[in-house]
Amino acid sequence: MRINNTEVTSLVSVIVPIYNQERYLEQCVKSLLHQTYPYLEIILVNNGSKDRSGAICKKFARQDRRVRVLEIKENLSAGNGRNTGLDAAAGEYISFVDGDDWVRPEFIEKLLRALLENDVPIAQCCYERAYWNNTFSDTLPYHEFRIFSGREMCKIMNEFIGMCGPMTMMWNKLYRAELFKDFRFYEDVAYEDMYSVYKLLYPLERVAFIPDRLAYWRQHGSSGTSRYSYKDFCIHEMYAYEERVRFFGMHNDRELYRLALKRMYYIATQHLYLQKRYVKDSRNVQDWLLDKIADIYRELMAMDCWSARTRSRMRFIRRFPEQFGYWSLHHKVDFRI
């Protein structure tokens, strides 16, 4: 790859946390080995897998010297695997790919080109959701190349259903390694991306967004790839949103505080619907969510920035939280408040 008549040979470290992903791991690693940008170290972090994932990792390490295998005895979370990879990474640039996902051959090259040509610390692409029946769904919030500030990206991830996904994920981006000098992921939590990405983005003046769909996020129900139940995921996601709200409050950013609180309001109704519809013996979690919805409602209504129409919408959600959760999930209803 050449930029301004100069051959680019900078090392990119790709960190892959792995837990019980023998079914999908070969496709993931092969997609990295076949990258059009060849200057890679592929760090496979076997996070205490109980299946053949470790053996598959070692096979690839024997076949290609760019592959390194790190072993962790006990699975804590993808965050633990990522931190282990960061501690070992030697690259000038960092990317993350989960062990059950895969990327297009030009994934690294296009992101690195966007990062270098625009002199930004992060470049981001779009992705597609890949389902068990070989169908795909798009996640394309913008159809052209854009330069955002980090704050603008934080606003988008809090404001719009359907557009927040590409902004929120860690694994559809390429980062300058110095961003991780004093940053590590939470361990022993689910939704580590939601605890993390906005903290990296918020202080940045410029982030490159390319509309290319370069990554595939596999959608499957394999409980073997996670140590958490849906009840756990629900609680962890709510805690992640609480921390996001606190973060913007600590930075005295009233607009993003309000938007993050609104997003948390919506997410709580979605989880309430899902808990009632699909989870047995979840009465305690449902009561906890109802309390959260009531608390958020009171805080939102205490703000003096709302129109009468917006207040009416918030009252509707408060009165029918489960129904709104259904509409929000299945019909992408998003009352702009």
From TrEMBL:
Residues 13-175 form the Glycosyltransferase 2-like domain. It comes from Anaerotruncus colihominis DSM 17241. The keyword Iron does not apply. Its EC number is 2.4.-.-. GO terms for molecular function: glycosyltransferase activity. It comes from the Bacteria. InterPro entries: Glyco_trans_2-like, Nucleotide-diphossugar_trans. Keywords: Glycosyltransferase, Transferase. It is an enzyme of class 2 (transferase). This is Glycosyltransferase, group 2 family protein. SUPFAM superfamilies: Nucleotide-diphospho-sugar transferases (SSF53448). Transmembrane segments: none annotated.
